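My main concern about presentation is that the manuscript never shows what a single data entry looks like. In essence, backbone conformation is discretised, so a fold becomes a row of integers matching the chain in length. An entry of this sort, consisting of the sequence and the corresponding backbone structure tokens, reads as follows:
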Amino acid sequence: MDNVVSGSFRAPFQSVNEEVSSGDKRILGTASALTAIRNYLNQPPALRRSKFNPNFHHRHGETGIKRAQLLEKYLMQNTPSPRSSQGSSGDRRGAISLEREEFNELLDRQALLLETYKKGKVSPALLAVIDGSGLVTDKHIKDAKLLNGGNSHTSSLRRYVMNSEVTEEAPPITNKPIGEEIAEDSYLIDRSQLKNTGGDVSQSAHAVTRYKKDDTYYFGKNFPSADSVSPEELAETKEKALAEVCYSMLWQSFIGDRASSSMFMKNENGEIDGICSKGLPGFREYKSCLEDGDAAATPGMLPILVTAFLLEEDDLHSKNIGKCEIDGRQVYGKIDHDYIADKYGTDQQPNFPIERLAEFLNSPTPQTADDMGREMRFSPITKNSRLLRMGHAIRNFFNIGPDTTLGKHHRNEFYSRSLTRFRHEAQDISSKIKNYDVGQIDRLIEFAEKQRESMGIEDTDSIAVPILKRMKARIEYLQENLE
């Protein structure tokens, strides 16, 4: 965005200097709209081609492309008005004042163009002023007609531009570093502190009981009793729980409290006999937000998507991500970290090409995002098949299980909203990866080894340690390949 501002707006007005701040909402609004137009033009082929005509681009065909290119051209216009070139020859201060006034007029024109475009009411007269001619011609009338065409469908240019509107910047990501000593209360909770709220959580893939401590909910799973399973099965259950606890700490080392904590539960004898997930405050599922039209202006999805691909989380479905309140702000958060622990070492173990993530972080476009989405079972950028969506709808109808799928419409919402409005979040999480201290993972591995011994599972094949070593290698690859 800074390149757009400096390259497109500053050049004709160098002496204005910092008199007009680059933080001016008009500048940010135009720069965001230009980014949205580029995202629209760079929509991945799956969103552009009609199954009836592989050459049919975008929802509005070639006309949509021409409309986007035309709007971009008018937004990039920097022609000074005639009086600008007549500036005072002897009074430098007067010249600077004239340039400042001209620059402000330019910003006002660009803001007016965006405002009228969103409403489909661009006037030929405004276009004539923007291109410096001042006189309305047939070309201006034709251009205004083209700009005012189209609709506000999810994948339309107008929706992309509307969703780029600058409101407030996303809060910075506050991570939770893994220290030399890992505090016990970050991974262990006494059952005596938890109040059973009654009954199992409905539509969960596992038997989950909801507890409450103060104003926070915890969702717990008990280990099987020693007389109900073999010693090997019980040890494997504990190992998977340990892997989940470590994995949640790894998530938090990137996005902090936006990721839920997985914690061991300890009984009155001091024995670890279960695992629970600490709920995120005010959590509301992503799909619910989409269905209610309440998903637009919430930041935080891109960091979750990037971290999920980095850490090979293949259960990023619409019920495991959602809105929550962190430090008084609404952001997206992520819950439930057991999938990778459960599937590691099986033919369902996730295996995301790390090169795809490097490509996205170096160039966060709809195309590079789509390339990642194709590798994932569930995510905001993954379009689930009609057959899978139908199966989930049926199981949800009969209360057998939840519908966690997303369709093309939902994916398009991500491209036109999150990727356009909060693109800078990709730079934020990219910087955190680049500067990540992989020594944190070494400390987590040491923690896992000590826990295996204290839990009496040191003779069981480790799941936690191989996962952590794999993630360390993926992080180190990115640190070498991010621009």
